[in-house]
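dumping this here so i dont lose it
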């Protein structure tokens, strides 16, 4: 199997759709590799108040007595002082619980813009929006995967695959031509295709599929390492920056065992690299309790990987951490080296992870979405409640919140979409 880089017409030159607060479309013919969607005027507008929370104002909380906060609750729930009053007063006199955009650094305000706005663009009465969000601009559609549905105490579990048109708010289920068992992470692959991960089911291991969301045609691309089955692949990132050709980095935690849909695991808690030209698969990084999200910096020189070990109930002090690695290239391969702590989530775990065009790192947490500078400093948060995964569609940050999909119109844009690949004989 040989794969070649496919540049879509959108990547070469396409109209840019800039969404204003009324949902109008201001198009201009300029080169763009990640155009913004239009958002329906029928989408619900949500509270979008911006508040400033300078770090110095939060340095000391116990001057009037002890304070307490649960690890899975937002900062605003901290109980302080002898009367155990909730931490609600901000330097501006507002209440933290009334604020959606929390600026911990002045740079956050320039990133979100003067009038950031959040829209609800889809909702259902069950957890249909959890994982693998992908923006496919040529189809004007978002792709994503549901949470595990069925009986989560047994192996009787499944997932659903969905597309969403932000302009019409239409959701449509995608039915693959062959089963993708307990689907999970995904990324761009071709103009109408995504590269989507199978976590597996019972004795069937993890795998990577190419899926055409327009036709449902699914093709199995990778399902083993030297005859050993993958555990339950979670997230992936395409790298076009390797000397000898493109690669895919993907995380492979043993979530299937903890979540009851897999009955065995043969490999460690690894991050893998798959060479698309040679077919070679090799361990790129280890040392995780539970590797989860993975993303590359816009220049491809740094990889960010989340460890969500805290998710496991028996290890409450395990990592809730983002690690950074240097992507080191050679003629034969590429390696992840010089591991260091980049940041840690203060509410829940850092789940899905993305970068913007300036290299800022965004991750879903129990509070919403947290944004960090390339140096690991917390810039601010979008406090909409727990967010599992997100994706940049131009200057629109799409957030998956299990039973709803939100879209935040910002001043920053996402990076160019990943390189797109198609099989050739």
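and the seq i came up w/
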């Amino acid at each position: 199997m040989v794969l070649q880089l496919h540049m879509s017409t959108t990547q070469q030159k396409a109209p840019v759709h800039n969404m204003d607060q009324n949902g109008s479309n201001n198009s201009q013919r300029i080169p763009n590799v990640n155009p913004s969607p239009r958002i329906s005027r029928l989408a619900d507008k949500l509270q979008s108040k911006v508040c400033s929370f300078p770090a110095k104002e939060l340095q000391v909380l116990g001057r009037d007595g002890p304070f307490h906060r649960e690890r899975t609750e937002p900062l605003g729930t901290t109980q302080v002082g002898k009367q155990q009053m909730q931490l609600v007063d901000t330097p501006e006199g507002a209440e933290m619980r009334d604020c959606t955009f929390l600026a911990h650094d002045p740079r956050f305000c320039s990133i979100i813009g003067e009038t950031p706005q959040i829209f609800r663009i889809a909702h259902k009465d069950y957890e249909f929006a959890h994982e693998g969000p992908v923006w496919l601009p040529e189809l004007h559609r978002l792709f994503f995967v549901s949470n595990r549905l069925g009986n989560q105490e047994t192996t009787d579990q499944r997932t659903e695959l969905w597309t969403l048109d932000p302009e019409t708010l239409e959701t449509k289920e995608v039915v693959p031509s062959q089963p993708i068992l307990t689907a999970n992470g995904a990324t761009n692959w071709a103009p109408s295709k995504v590269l989507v991960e199978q976590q597996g089911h019972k004795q069937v291991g993890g795998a990577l599929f190419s899926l055409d969301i327009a036709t449902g045609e699914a093709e199995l691309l990778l399902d083993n390492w030297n005859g050993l089955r993958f555990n339950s692949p979670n997230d992936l990132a395409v790298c076009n920056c390797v000397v000898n050709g493109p690669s895919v980095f993907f995380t492979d935690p043993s979530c299937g065992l903890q979540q009851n849909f897999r009955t065995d695991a043969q490999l460690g808690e690894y991050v893998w690299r798959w060479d698309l030209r040679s077919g070679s698969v090799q361990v790129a990084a280890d040392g995780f309790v539970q590797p989860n999200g993975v993303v590359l910096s816009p220049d491809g020189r740094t990889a960010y990987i989340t460890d969500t070990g805290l998710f496991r109930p028996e290890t409450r002090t395990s990592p809730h951490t983002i690690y950074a690695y240097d992507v080191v290239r050679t003629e034969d391969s590429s390696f992840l080296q010089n591991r260091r702590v980049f940041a840690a989530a203060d509410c829940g775990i850092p789940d899905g992870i993305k970068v913007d065009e300036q290299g800022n790192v965004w991750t879903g947490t129990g509070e919403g979405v947290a944004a960090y500078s390339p140096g690991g400093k917390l810039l601010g948060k979008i406090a909409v409640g727990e967010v599992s995964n997100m994706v940049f569609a131009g200057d629109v940050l799409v957030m998956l919140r299990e039973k709803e999909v939100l879209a935040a119109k910002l001043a920053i844009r996402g990076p160019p979409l990943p390189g797109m690949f198609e099989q050739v004989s």
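The longest helix spans residues 107-112.
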